[in-house]
Design goal:
The structure holds 2 protein chains of 2 kinds.
Chain A: H1 3-35, E1 48-54, H2 60-74, E2 77-83, H3 85-97, E3 105-108, H4 113-116, H5 126-131, H6 142-148, E4 150-151, E5 154-155, E6 157-159, E7 166-170, H7 171-176, H8 185-195, E8 208-211, H9 220-232, H10 255-267, H11 280-288, E9 292-297, H12 300-304, E10 317-321, E11 327-330, E12 335-338, E13 356-357, E14 363-366, H13 372-386, H14 388-394, H15 407-411, H16 413-419, H17 423-437, E15 443-444, H18 451-467, H19 473-491, H20 493-504
Parallel strand pairs in A: 1-2, 1-3, 8-9, 13-15
Antiparallel strand pairs in A: 3-14, 4-5, 6-14, 7-9, 7-10, 11-12
Helix pairs in contact in A: 2-13, 9-10, 9-18, 16-17, 18-19
Chain B: H1 2-11, H2 18-61, E1 63-68, E2 71-76, H3 80-86, H4 91-94, E3 96-97, H5 103-125, H6 130-155, E4 160-161, H7 163-188, H8 196-208, H9 211-221, H10 230-235, H11 247-276, H12 279-287, H13 292-319, H14 324-330, H15 341-350, H16 354-385
Antiparallel strand pairs in B: 1-2, 3-4
Helix pairs in contact in B: 1-2, 2-16, 3-16, 5-6, 7-11, 7-13, 8-11, 9-11, 9-14, 11-13, 11-14, 12-13, 13-16, 15-16
The chains are: A alpha/beta, B mainly alpha.
Chain lengths: 508, 386
């Protein structure tokens, strides 16, 4: 070897050893930090908790904002990692399934528990929740405790957000013309038609009758089921609105779903031209800038509408339970039949309402595979975020994306008046929330293995193609039915049926 | 290498015979070992990062993923995923919906088939080998199949292109426009106009922006209702029109964004080629009284043709992978109108339908390979030979 080669080798060896030293140094630091213990303000000193959620600003904002406060109280370092919503499901699942475990806790869609809980990825927190006084578990509305947070009777998540869809209307405009808020989808279409093309915010430009997020691969498939819900389900939550609980046959190839698809498509006639490319961010912006007479959405519009920075419709927004139908599906014949006392036991004034708990509310869960100390700190953080001291403030702020889910939040109007709502507006908003949440006919979102494929791919694609005119209504129905049956058969019909009935067997 | 040289050197002075042969074999062995020691790390790295994923994804494309307690399992399902794409429930999404051929479709088909047949006859008369002819016939059959699919999905009433055809449209239209624009801009900048240096940088800017940024920018620009160009759209009477509601409007928006972003790549390489050409021939042409067009057509263009062929090949391979623009602009909508093959695979992968996703990805690999091979054989080799 020449001298020059010698020195090259030496340089290489030095570089490699430096690299190794750097790597092992990092690892050593972690070990050291995790072994430090303490109590109170030092309780989790040096413990790092990586929380994965979606790129907000909603949902991530309150977590990031309150992390330093939590750090001062307990010493734990909360690092919030965000990914786009569309990537969250597979990001979590691949991380857990491959044993990478780069994340210690998740704030996610509890609907996915059907995929996450059976393989044992999530920590069972039933006992922790029972022992936790500060979080005031009993204050959380029963629907969220029993459905959102639980799987087969065990608790796996802590609710941070209450999710179900409602309809928003311009109360000033409807009042002026002596109109009632929509009770049925026919009413909805009539109101949308009446105001489409009229100037609703005095800027001299024509505005829209209805704004619904219909963008593909966004929220459109939930919206479609919010419309379909009241045609499909009448006998209460446990009847199910996605599959026949006896055969696991999809409830799509029938007159009820066909009618719902027609209604959903008709709303597009009274909407912005590019509605097929709007997600909820866009429709919320349009509604709060006074450009829409009606919108269907989660609870967010209520709080966004009182934000003086962005809203021009403060105190001009009414909220109402999802419109319903006077005809419901007869499951034996597949036809729509008139409501009566036996068919629609929960009808209000002869109208069957079925508010859809779409998504189910952002919830915190803990990775079962991480160190005990990290689990403790992660649990403490989720509990802290959900405790009334924090969450009763967060749910009144539009930017958090958190909607009410605790009884104290429905009952205490003062919270909302303090946040900027008028007393009347708060009563109206909380009234619609209470009416939806207390409806025994609430629709549980689909929570079986591969729910993301059923809804996010098959349903979403068919609905998008139907709206864009690529498929006729009947073709769309067939495509959904075949796609769903294929997934059910691949996963095992009996397994899927068991998971579906498990998710519906809730004592409320 | 040093060790090999030393070992070889020692063997040389020894006289011929058994011992010498044995020793020379030993030295060959030693030299082989040394070579292997140097080559294997690189080979292993390639095997690990390139070959293994390729084989693993091939296996995934033949299987179905199921989550089970403690992890996941792959169940082998044979060619089910591919069957699903070609003749099953995914056919409408992948290949498209086939409509009946109209007069235009028949005319295009007839012209295409005649052209392919003529090419084959010419090759046979030109003395192509039997193996060469077999490949040519295979290529012609694939080309005719593609043409048939294009005619039945793009030109037929009631037809609708699937992700494979939409991707092909993106590639063909995009590359043609990028090449012509890039060549035009590069030619302009060799004409000694004022501000050349500035424009050289300005023309390059789109390539520096991340594709996601470009996609968001075009989403704002194409928004006729509230985007920054709204007054412009209103002035030309398009304020009530939405690009993204019409399938071709949305596809055009995607293609315009892609062309805007990638023309600079063509531009910079063609500019380098134009600037590097031999000035003597150009000057000789000028002395002989050739005009600008004649100089460009007969001197500059032939000089840069090999570079043109290469840069088109690079873009060809790259363009098939388009995903950012349709994903951000429309999420593949309206319906599935703007969905490319990569986006198709991504949508399946996102819900952990890994088998289907890998099958789409493998189909893409097949299409890219065939397209690139055909291009190399038909165009590039010919230009290089000239």
């Amino acid at each position: 070897m020449t001298k020059r080669q010698c020195s090259r080798w030496a340089a290489c060896v030095a570089a490699v050893s430096l690299l190794l030293a750097a790597c092992s140094g990092g690892g050593g630091g972690d070990n050291q930090s995790q072994s430090t213990q303490g109590t109170g303000a030092d309780q989790f000193k040096g413990v790092d908790v990586t929380v994965l959620t979606f790129t907000g600003p909603q949902i991530a904002e309150p977590l990031q904002r309150r992390a330093p406060d939590f750090n001062q109280r307990t010493g734990a370092n909360i690092k919030v990692v965000t990914v786009p919503f569309a990537d969250l499901y597979d990001k979590i699942l691949t991380d857990l399934a491959t044993g990478t475990n780069s994340y210690d806790a998740f704030v996610f869609d509890p609907q996915w528990m059907g995929d996450f809980v059976p393989p044992g990825y999530l920590e069972d927190i039933t006992d922790r929740v029972k022992a936790d006084q500060a979080m005031k578990w009993d204050d959380i509305a029963p629907f969220f405790r029993d459905f959102s947070a639980s799987y087969k009777g065990r608790t796996y998540t802590i609710p941070l957000d209450g999710d179900f869809q409602m309809v928003y209307y311009r109360s000033d405009v409807l009042q002026r013309d002596g109109l009632k808020p929509p009770a049925t989808w026919d009413d909805y279409l009539a109101i949308a038609k009446r105001y489409n093309g009229k100037d609703l915010n005095d800027d001299g430009k024509a505005d829209y009758g209805s704004c619904i997020a219909k963008k593909r691969a966004a929220q459109s498939y939930w919206m479609s089921w919010s419309v379909a819900g009241s045609y499909l389900q009448a006998e209460g939550t446990s009847q199910g609105a996605f599959f026949d609980v006896n055969t696991m046959k999809p409830l799509v190839n029938n007159q009820a779903f066909a009618t719902a698809l027609d209604v959903y498509k008709q709303t597009t006639n009274y909407a912005p031209k590019d509605e097929l490319n709007l997600d909820v961010g866009d429709t919320r912006g349009l509604f709060t800038s006074g450009r829409c007479a009606l919108s269907a959405d989660w609870g967010d519009i209520g709080t966004l509408a009182i934000d003086p920075k962005t809203s021009t419709v403060k105190d001009k927004v009414g909220t109402v339970i999802m419109p319903g139908s006077k005809k419901v599906l007869d499951r034996a014949s597949g036809q729509l039949v008139d409501c009566d006392a036996t068919r629609c036991p929960h009808a209000i004034d002869g109208v069957n309402h079925a508010p859809f708990a779409a998504f189910g509310g952002w919830s915190g869960a803990i990775n079962a595979a991480v160190d005990q100390k990290v689990k403790d700190a992660a649990y403490a953080f989720m509990s802290f975020m959900s405790a009334p001291e924090q969450s009763n403030v967060d749910v009144t702020l539009g930017k958090t994306g958190f909607n009410p889910y605790r009884t104290s939040q429905f009952e205490d109007t003062d919270l909302w008046v303090k946040a900027g709502m008028s007393k009347e507006g708060a009563d109206n908003y909380l009234g619609a929330i209470r009416e939806s949440l207390q409806s025994p006919n609430m629709i549980l979102d689909l929570r079986v293995p591969k729910s993301a494929q059923y809804q996010g791919v098959v349903l979403d694609t068919a609905v998008a193609q139907f709206l864009a005119g690529e498929l006729t209504r009947d073709q769309a129905i067939q495509q959904i039915e075949q796609g769903w049956e294929k997934i059910t058969d691949e996963e095992g019909r009996d397994d899927q049926k068991a998971a579906y009935t498990d998710s519906l067997n809730i004592q409320r | 290498m040093d060790a090999a040289r030393v070992a070889g050197g020692r063997g040389r002075p020894v006289a011929a015979g058994e011992a010498a042969r044995a020793r020379s074999q030993a030295s060959l062995g030693a030299s082989f070992a040394v070579r292997a020691a140097f080559i294997w790390p690189a080979l292993l790295a390639i095997l690990f990062v390139s070959i293994y994923p390729l084989l693993a994804s091939l296996y995934i494309s033949l299987s179905h993923l199921k989550l089970v307690r403690g992890g996941f399992e792959f169940r082998f399902v044979g060619l089910d995923n591919f069957r699903e794409l070609l003749v099953g429930g995914e056919q409408g999404n992948f290949l498209g919906v086939l409509g009946p051929l109209g007069p235009v479709g028949w005319a295009v088909m007839a012209a295409g088939v005649a052209l392919l047949g003529w090419g084959l006859v010419r090759a046979w008369r030109g003395g192509a080998s039997v193996a060469g002819m077999v490949f040519r016939v295979l290529g012609a059959v694939l080309a005719a199949g593609t043409l048939w699919l294009a005619a039945r999905t793009l030109l037929a009433a009631g037809g609708r292109p699937g992700t494979a055809m939409v991707t092909l449209v993106y590639v063909l239209v995009g590359i043609t426009a990028q090449f012509l624009l890039g060549l035009g801009l590069a030619y302009l900048l060799t004409q000694g106009l004022p501000g050349q240096r500035l424009f050289r940088v300005v023309f390059l800017l789109p390539m520096m922006i991340t594709p996601v940024g470009v996609a968001y920018m075009f989403r704002m620009l194409t928004d006729t209702g509230k985007g920054p160009l709204q007054p412009l759209w209103a002035a030309v009477g398009l304020s009530d029109f939405s690009w993204v509601n019409s399938p071709w409007g949305a596809r055009v928006a995607v293609m315009v964004g892609d062309i805007w972003q990638w023309t600079p790549f063509m531009f910079i390489i063609l500019l380098a080629a134009l600037e590097a050409q031999d000035t003597d021939t150009v000057e000789a042409g000028m002395v002989d009284g050739a005009n600008r067009w004649q100089i460009f057509r007969h001197i500059s263009l032939p000089a840069i043709l090999p570079v043109c062929a290469t840069v088109v090949l690079i873009r060809l391979i790259e363009a098939f992978k388009i995903i950012d623009l349709p994903n951000i602009l429309t999420n593949g909508g309206p319906g599935t109108a703007t969905e490319s093959l990569s986006l198709h695979a991504y949508f399946r992968w996102r819900t952990l339908d890994l088998g289907q996703s890998a099958a789409v990805a493998y189909s893409l690999l097949f299409i890219v390979t065939v397209a690139a091979l055909a291009y190399v054989n038909l165009v590039r080799r010919r230009i290089a030979e000239e």
